[in-house]
């Protein structure tokens, strides 16, 4: 029988069903958000699309003015923004789901307890075990940063969603948008680093990590 996870077990990983649902659901939603931004900012750019619309209309024997082409491109952009907002609301729901998980799981399995355990393990680790303890602590700190990024992304996204309907939110809309955009790049950086780290762990000292995150496992010692 696997030992019960506790806050004193910094190498214990929680691959429970609810957490796996949050992990993969959150990953898909973040990916969806980034894809919509990719289309809005790079692929569906009104000024770049208008000549293509006009050329397509000409080939079909029609005539499309620049203003008409801009209206079509804006309509496409608005539809993508609608998708972005919908996915953002789903991401907010998953954010709330994660908060509920943290409040309902046993105290020793909460992220806060795991972070404290990793810090304590690092402080008390003998010299020979210090590198592994440091790695564990850095991983936990990177997760903490990601949770903070998600909090900021969700809160600023909700603020932007209702900025036109709430006077005081409309007054800070520009600042909120800047924070939202910067946070997006921080999340992209984390996701890239996380994927590289997971693949590296999988092919080195933590084989089976990805399969455990898919199928579930109570714990895995480093």
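-> sequence recovered:
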């Amino acid at each position: 029988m696997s030992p019960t996870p506790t806050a004193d077990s910094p190498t214990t990983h929680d691959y429970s069903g609810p957490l796996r649902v949050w992990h993969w659901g959150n990953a898909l939603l973040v990916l969806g958000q980034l894809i919509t931004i990719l289309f809005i900012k790079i692929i569906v750019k009104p000024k770049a699309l208008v000549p293509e619309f006009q050329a397509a209309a000409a080939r079909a024997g029609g005539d499309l003015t620049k203003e008409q082409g801009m209206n079509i491109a804006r309509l496409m952009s608005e539809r993508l923004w609608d998708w972005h907002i919908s996915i953002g609301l789903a991401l907010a729901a998953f954010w709330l789901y994660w908060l509920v998980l943290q409040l309902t799981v046993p105290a020793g399995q909460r992220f806060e307890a795991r972070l404290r355990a990793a810090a304590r393990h690092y402080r008390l680790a003998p010299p020979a075990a210090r590198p592994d303890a440091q790695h564990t602590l850095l991983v936990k700190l990177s997760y903490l940063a990601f949770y903070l990024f998600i909090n900021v992304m969700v809160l600023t996204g909700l603020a932007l969603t209702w900025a036109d309907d709430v006077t005081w939110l409309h007054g800070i809309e520009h600042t909120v948008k800047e924070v939202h955009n910067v946070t997006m790049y921080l999340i992209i950086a984390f996701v890239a680093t996380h994927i590289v780290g997971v693949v590296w762990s999988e092919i080195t000292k933590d084989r089976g990590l990805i399969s455990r995150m898919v199928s579930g496992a109570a714990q895995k010692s480093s």
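The chain is about 75% helix and 0% strand.
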